Amino acid sequence: MSKTLAAVATQFLDRQGLAKSTRLSYELTLQPLLERYGSWPIEIIDRSALEEYLNSLNHLAYTTHHRHQSIIQSLFNFAVESGVLKSNPIARLKRRKPDPEQGEHTSDQIRYLTPEQLQLLYQVTAKDTRMNALIHLLHRSGARISEVLALDYTDLDLEDRKFRVIGKGNKYRWCFYSPDAAQAIAKYCRFSRHSEHPALFTAAHRFSGQLTRMSYPTAYQHWIRLTRPVPELNKIRLHDLRHTFATERVGLMGIEELRALMGHDNIQTTLRYQKVTSQRAETVAHKALNLLLNPKQ
Question: At the fourth CATH level, which superfamily is domain 115-249?
């Protein structure tokens, strides 16, 4: 008897050794795929259907798109290993490349928000308590968006303003946040959060009212709604808040400490932020020199 994609995905998510937060992150990633193909027998979902689905995710940054593709590929690898499929329909499928016209860059080019952009961002999100709390937590903790959306309310240590996540490689690390983020979270929890659901960031279905954990597509839609009217924020991504966190702290702490906060496996990944800070310092130095040489400008 053939199995549906949803049935195989359930087995994939319930397998032993998968951390709770990783499972939640995978669920959020697979949710749109299951909404489209969950009821289909898995053996009729071919390469062209999956390519069409991945191409429809054009709203995602290319790094997030890579993550979606990797998780879907892992799901179908699991189906092969379980004997449900003979082969993975998207084996060796090429990953999407960054699109410079969309403001995307290679991993060596880090994008971060300037103080002016941060001020604008907090202004335009001030009335949306959920997004304001989410943005504060991303910016002040440096956590990944998938890690934050996977949090339950009880995961927060409200007294010490910290929470623990399981990042890449199923490694635990502590993330810390500031008093202003704590205030934003408290305001959101008081006025907007659905306390009946365990998730920190909750959502209610528009028609049925069903309560769920806030998904990445929902967060992205609200992000676009809030930032699109502001030209200075048009090409800023949610993930850039993590880059901003790192660039703000280079020089204020040791590189190993920053590496631990970011959850990087490779120190070279952390050192990229040092390079960005050096470039920024060079730009500021040249501007200052021009002002000294040309005081009337």
Answer: Intergrase catalytic core (1.10.443.10)
